Prior knowledge:
Layout: H1 2-21, H2 31-40, E1 44-47, E2 55-62, E3 68-74, H3 77-90, E4 99-102, E5 106-113, E6 116-123, E7 126-133, H4 137-146
Antiparallel strand pairs: 1-2, 2-3, 3-7, 4-5, 5-6, 6-7
Amino acid sequence: MKQRTFFSSALLAVLLVLALTGCSARTAVDANDFKTLAEGAGYTVTDNTDQLSGAKSYLSAEDKSGNELYYAALSDEATALRLYNSIKDSIQTGGNKPTNLDSTPYAKYTVMNGELYYRVSRVNNTVIYGKCLVTSQSALDKLLDSIHY
């Protein structure tokens, strides 16, 4: 009986270690990486750093369909959290239920309102906000998921 318990405990420990190795910390992308990613997806990127007080970098991007992306790198996580919450609170839900994931280094909020899809994500001191047509939702999600936002 002791041998069976030991084997079960050892197997559980191995499975737990294997499961946790798939978890990785999210790493914030910098402005250059965001620009390269957005341009590769067909967006035209504009540097607007001087328009956002306290930003290290602030970029806006738009594609030919009018879909929009915004990237902000801020001085610290508290400032990024305030911007994230401000954007999140300004999004009209149209009565639809948003999805919301909040943790210390990472947060993501998504909602659909009519023909528009909104997604705002924060990793450490950076925030990325996307607004697109519902028909472009999967492309936006794929783009941001590829960089773990």
